[in-house]
Design a protein that fits this description.
Length: 350
């Protein structure tokens, strides 16, 4: 079990204190989160032999998160997660221009975004912590003063739950996602090629050479994107396929089967060797699978070097560039409305 030292996260960033919060349940499961970036730092869960391991990639100290973390490990991405084409969108007749920080596109809220700020702590207990953040009108180019809360809860059913809420005083674009890198064999243990994934979706949204969705919604049947049955990550990831070339592996959104706004099964990941299983449930319409294609030699916990495809992300969210594609689920948040998004990672063994 890898329990990060809370003292290693005590600090001050831009005048606000940082801290690490440790959540525990009766089964010995331990999850740790920090108010910097509302980041999930570690989740320790047992294998079939009751051996615990940390299944989330990250760092040992707050300084490493603040001074590095280019891959957004464990962070809440916003105000708008994923990509916005050309960093531009129009709302109520006005065009807005955002930072272009991923090729020709805007990614994960911009240069700072929600992932690189210190959130306030609204409350904390042994099983739950709530972080809140106030994003000002014009921050990173987005309109509206937005009040955001993220609550992390660890239950005795080995469920790690994320609940998001937000309101705005001006029409804005809003789409949060948690960007944890999972390896069910334990963080830093090598490629995830033998681990299996099922995604509860028959369709995905293809991308162009800049990883921006084209607007098409395509059936997964007969493609490397078919995870309708449990499939090892390594089975198709190196195939000569245009979508895999564009993403340098998997970096795509799947259109989930359940009705958005209701909690439904998004995906199931399984490591046959350890027996660990992670089920992902969400109220969101999509899930972005990313196989750490651009992580190479990243120094992580315990001095380990995280390399390409040593982890996977399952980011539950709205579809990328939804603001510029009217047929995609809307990412518009208006005054008087409440953004609500829940995601559960349920851990078990088989």
């Amino acid at each position: 079990m890898n329990i990060i030292k809370e003292d290693a996260f005590k600090g001050v960033h831009n005048g606000k204190p940082t801290a690490l919060y440790t959540l525990k349940n009766k089964n010995g499961v331990v999850a740790q989160v920090t108010n910097y970036g509302a980041i999930i730092v570690s989740i320790n869960v047992p294998d079939r032999n009751e051996n615990f391991a940390d299944v989330v990639q990250g760092y040992d100290t707050i300084g490493e998160y603040i001074n590095g973390n280019g891959p957004y490990m464990g962070a809440v991405c916003g105000r708008c997660a994923n990509r916005i084409g050309q960093g531009k969108f129009t709302l109520e007749g006005k065009e807005y221009t955002l930072a272009v920080n991923n090729g020709p596109n805007h990614l994960h809220g911009g240069i700072i975004g929600f992932s690189k700020v210190v959130w306030d702590v609204a409350g904390a207990s042994d099983s739950k912590v709530e972080f809140i953040y106030f994003a000002k009108d014009g921050e990173e180019g987005y309109p509206g003063n937005v009040k955001v809360s993220v609550t992390y809860t660890l239950t005795d059913d080995n469920e790690f739950r994320l609940d998001y809420h937000a309101t705005t005083d001006k029409t804005t674009v809003f789409n949060l996602a948690s960007h944890s890198y999972f390896n069910l064999a334990g963080e830093g243990s090598g490629k995830v090629y033998d681990q299996e994934l099922m995604i509860n979706a028959d369709f995905f949204t293809p991308v162009d050479e800049t990883s921006l969705p084209t607007g098409e919604i395509r059936n997964v049947k007969g493609t490397p994107m078919d995870f309708t049955k449990p499939t090892p990550f390594g089975k198709n990831i190196d195939k000569d396929d245009e979508q895999l070339r564009f993403g340098v592996g998997y970096d795509h959104n799947w259109v989930l089967k359940h009705r958005a706004g209701t909690l439904g099964l998004a995906a199931v990941a399984h490591d046959p060797q350890s027996g660990r299983v992670m089920e992902v449930f969400t109220t969101q319409p999509g899930v972005q699978l990313y196989t750490a294609n651009w992580v190479d030699g990243e120094k992580g916990k315990g001095g380990k070097l995280y390399n390409k495809r040593w982890a996977f992300c399952l980011e539950t969210q709205h579809f990328a560039d939804g603001i510029n594609k009217p047929h995609f689920p809307s990412t518009i948040l208006k005054p008087g409305e409440t953004y609500q998004h829940s995601c559960i990672h349920k851990f078990s063994v088989k």
